[in-house]
Design goal:
By secondary structure, the protein is of the alpha/beta class. Helices cover 34% and strands 24% of the residues. It contains seven helices and nine strands; from the N terminus they run H-H-H-E-E-H-E-H-E-H-E-E-H-E-E-E. The longest helix is centred in the first third of the chain and has 16 residues. The protein is globular, with a radius of gyration of 18 Å.
Length: 231
């Protein structure tokens, strides 16, 4: 590899890390076309994804692949979700402006930003301290302002309940009862349910105080939802 090629590749990486320009917006437009071709129909979700600079949420080693429709590793052994998966979960959640949303698993903050672009009031909880701190820095730099919490996602945020929507971005063997209890009547919870051998996307609607309507929406692959806080 020549020195000029190496310097150009370095320039591209630095450029993508620090800016959000017409090139990135063009790449996002192509990504949105890819996601739409896979069946996502909610144009508000597509518009939100088109506004969020995913490359600014990526680890530097993967920065040049930011607008491919794939998941990639981030810190603490976690991943930034595939954009299609983010769109799919968000579409199931039926987010509207001013709804109160609990996000379990802040991760990189990418999904958080999408929820905020949809006008939600986002309460986001993360058990990995490194991710908790990194996401605050990234989202703050981009002027996104969710309410951040460092804690056990299994427990949710009972002091701030009820929530109109609850989104879980890691797989649990079953829907935690503690989260169902924090869902408002008429509220929607979306969560991947299962283990590493198979996970189904679950949507739960709280019809009344004591009745929950459950539906399944295909197979996905997520990191596991773990209990407790990790320092």
């Amino acid at each position: 590899m020549t020195r000029n090629v190496q310097e150009y590749q370095l320039y591209l990486t630095v450029d993508m890390e620090k800016t959000d320009n017409y090139r990135h917006k063009g790449l996002r437009k192509k990504l949105i076309e890819t996601i739409r071709s896979k069946g996502i129909r909610d144009e508000a979700v597509m518009e939100a994804l088109g506004k969020v600079p995913r490359h600014l949420f990526m680890d530097s080693g993967f920065i040049n692949f930011s607008y491919t429709d794939k998941a990639f590793p981030i810190a603490a052994g976690q991943t930034i979700s595939q954009p299609y998966t983010v769109a799919f979960q968000t579409e199931l959640l039926e987010v509207r402006p001013h709804l109160k949303v609990l996000e379990v698993g802040t991760g990189s903050g990418y999904q958080t930003a999408v929820l905020l672009e949809l006008g939600a009031r986002v309460y986001t909880i993360e058990r990995q301290r490194q991710l908790f701190l990194d996401a605050q820095k990234t989202l703050g730099h981009l002027n996104y302002k969710p309410l951040f919490f460092y804690g056990d996602g299994y427990e949710g945020l009972p002091a701030y309940a009820p929530f109109d929507r609850i989104l879980v971005t890691a797989a649990a063997p079953e829907v935690p009862r503690s989260l169902l209890d924090q869902l408002s009547e008429g509220g929607i919870l979306v969560l991947p349910e299962g283990d590493r051998f198979g996970q189904k996307m679950i949507r739960v609607v709280r019809e009344t105080a004591d009745h929950f309507e459950r539906s399944e929406h295909g197979y996905f692959s997520f990191v596991p939802l773990l209990r407790g806080k990790n320092k």
